[in-house]
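User: Josephin-2. Structure?
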Amino acid sequence: RLAPDARLNPHRSLLGTGNYDVNVIMAALQSLELAAVWWDKRRPLERLALGQVLGFILNVPSHVSLGFVALPLRRKHWLAVRQLRGTYYNLDSKLRAPVPIGGEAELRAFLRDFLSQGLCEVFLVVPRAVEETGAWLSPE
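Assistant: Predicted structure:
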């Protein structure tokens, strides 16, 4: 639906390995009355109003491998983080199972670690009403 007249999907890897761009993620969230809000890395993570955020989507550098052989290449990879019963989980599809991150302090440290690597983008998944009011951001 994002490129109905295109012969090749401009939102997907040419190799057909998935790796969709952010437009696909945003369209999927919009269909569920949710939104992806880009996190400005210059803001302190303490300003996140975590009670208003349903989850996180990170775009991070990832090593490329062919089977067991790691190549000296990196490409971007999407991973998700979600809270369940007070514990945040790393839902990276490259992991064998979800990995517990911990509570709010551990989540902020987890996000800070990725953001400090430089080539990382963080998106907050929030209800549309939260996006519209900016309630995902605590006052200074």
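Helices lie at 22-30, 104-116, 128-133. The chain has a mean pLDDT of 84.
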